[in-house]
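hey team, just a heads up i'm posting the complex here instead of the shared drive bc the drive is being weird again. everything in one block, sequence lines first with there labels, then the predicted structure for the whole assembly after. its two chains so it's a bit long, scroll down
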Amino acid sequence: MTFMALPLPTATRALAAALAASSALALSAAGALAQDHDPDAVINIGSLYEPQNLDNTAGAGQGINEAFNGNVYEGLFVLTDDGDVEPRLAEDYTISEDGLVYTFTLKDGVTFHSGDPLTADDVKSSIERVVAENSASSRKRTLAVIEAIEVLDDRTLTVTLKSPSISLPYNLSYVWIVNDTAGDISASEDGTGPYVLREWRRGSALALVPFEGYWGDAPDNGGVMFQYFTDATAQNNALLTGAVDIITSVQSPDALSQFADNPDFTVSEGASTTKEIMAYNDRIAPFDDPMVRSALARAVDNEKLLNAIWGDYGTLIGSFVPPTDPWYVDLTDVNAYDPESARQMLAEAGYEDGFSFTLDTPDYDPHPIVAQFVQNELANVGVDVKINIITANEWYTKIYKAQDFEATLQEHVNHRDIVFYGNPDFYWGYDNPEVTRLIAESENVASIAEQTEMLTEANRIIAEDAASMWLYLYPQIVVSTSNVTGYPLNGLNSQFFVSDIKKAD
Amino acid sequence: MTAQEPEARRLPRARRRAPAHWLGLVLVGVIVAAGLVSFVWTPYALSDMAGGRLAPPSAAHWAGTDRLGRDVFTQLMIGARIALVVGCGAVAIGGAIGIAVGVLAAFATRFADDALAAVFDILIAFPTLLIAMLVVAAREEASLGTAILALGIGLSPIVGRVTRILTKRVLSKDYITAARVSGTGWPAIVLWHILPNIAPFLGVNLALQFGLAVMAEASLSYLGLGTPPPNASWGRMLQEAQGTVYTAPWGALLPGLALFSLVIGVNLLADALRDRFDPAGRDS
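-- predicted structure starts here --
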């Protein structure tokens, strides 16, 4: 199983990227090799994200998606660990000519954990739960496009939209299908997934056991136990002492030094969707000039910065789009590091003597250290950066709400969030009519290929415009004991599918 | 119980504790020297990032490098400068406010005196750091000046209370009565009789406040409220090294050690001052 491990200090970033890209292959290969796994073994998973309750429309936090998405509940569609959207409880679906009516056919023979069969009424009530008035789902807004849901028969329903939405299957991937007789699900569950909830001990653990009547392939393990920690050090120690088998995300390269080069542990790097960026206020001079922004992008050596923060982990990005978004293209060559041309471009833009700006920097790691790096790099091309340390709260009121800033540092965590660049009212105020049009219209097209094409084009334009300074993509690091394989690496939208996890004897 | 003990007890306290006092002098001396030298010379420029990520201590980098490849020894020297500037500045401001108000209280009518004493007690009940954080939060941007002002204000009630008590003690002395009877105005009494007489005790107190100010500045910087980056405050160095204590322990150990040395050193010196001036300790 060591072929999945990175020999850390010597691993080149290229190797890491190659491994991340081929993780799916590596995992299935691992499955083929690990014949001698114990099908009854319980997998202990360490996590820092304990859910507040068990209902993802009641402000439960990201932890509930980690524990329940795809494990206890399933959607009509699933967002795979590689970022593809595939049908799950939907057998098939068709879209009307005008793109306004989706007709879904459900899989046959699916039953809820309570024994009730899955019907179209369950799907209707599940979608209505998410868009309901009192729903606290963070996804509510993206489903506001739904006009009406109509049940045709037990296995067929139609969803009518106010305007075409090619992302509907993707958006439905985080709508749990809940039995319509389940009632309040904040402390219990009734889903269709491969696991049922055995026990939830608030403040410490959540235990799942395989569901005997599952419609698909049975899990490769005898159950999983999510153990919750409030402190990363305690979580790491639990892995070191064998109290847990896997930890779902490692927050700093420093903690990895305990596991790297140790044959008892496997350190794997996936692709996260968390981007560290320097956002300019694109409304104000000199940041309203793409020439100036491009010059600044060329003045900063992102590779050196990434190495300083994450050692040999993480990925360089040339725009806001991470490799797991369908509209990713490698744009790192656009405005690549080149201080000489940065100076020329600044002179061309009328700033041969440079200029000065204030960088509002959140007070938590890694932003202050990133700010100092950017400050030193920009000083080399004659641009003077003043670092102003602010709290997360101030960031929200001063920058996000009041939009009163010159430039700021922030990490953006969402999957498929290029849409922010299509909103001129967003805090960074990027306003390119062509990008706004592409992003708005990409939702109304007839095929995913067209959507991908248009968003790829938008992606290219924001990169050429250097709309913001995209510094690097955080790594998603999962560490396990070396006898455990088959876990997802990328953790898109906080999901953590557990049914393929195997533990060797 | 041994034969030597009574003899040892007869030694003046100052001499018995001389080694500790010398240690204090050496610690403070080294740090003051490092801070002064940093004005004219440091091994590297603060913005020099060529050292490589988290290089361990070596001949080229005596204290290793940080994540950005900057020389830690350079940052320690500049941190010494900042600690001294903040310490002296905060003690100057806190001392000026505290002494002025403390003397005023001692001279004031009974009602005003009680009121000021109560204000001192209330302000002392708030930790210095908390008062300083409030002052910083009230300003637009964090800066070295803000930090000094904030800490000075935070320290002033402590100085004020001590000054008030010391002044009252002196005011009851016969020579003050004599001066008053002979028509000396109160500004002259303060200047010629009170300040010289309370100076030794006040000096000890101010030296202790210096240590407190240095610690508080490190705490403020640790919280991101002190000197803004890239100025290398020891507190900020500690904060930045926190995430790499396993892989590069020197980054957190050395600024911590520097902070510890300065505060201990100043306390030992204050001790020496007290032994020098405290009549009770002189001849016992």
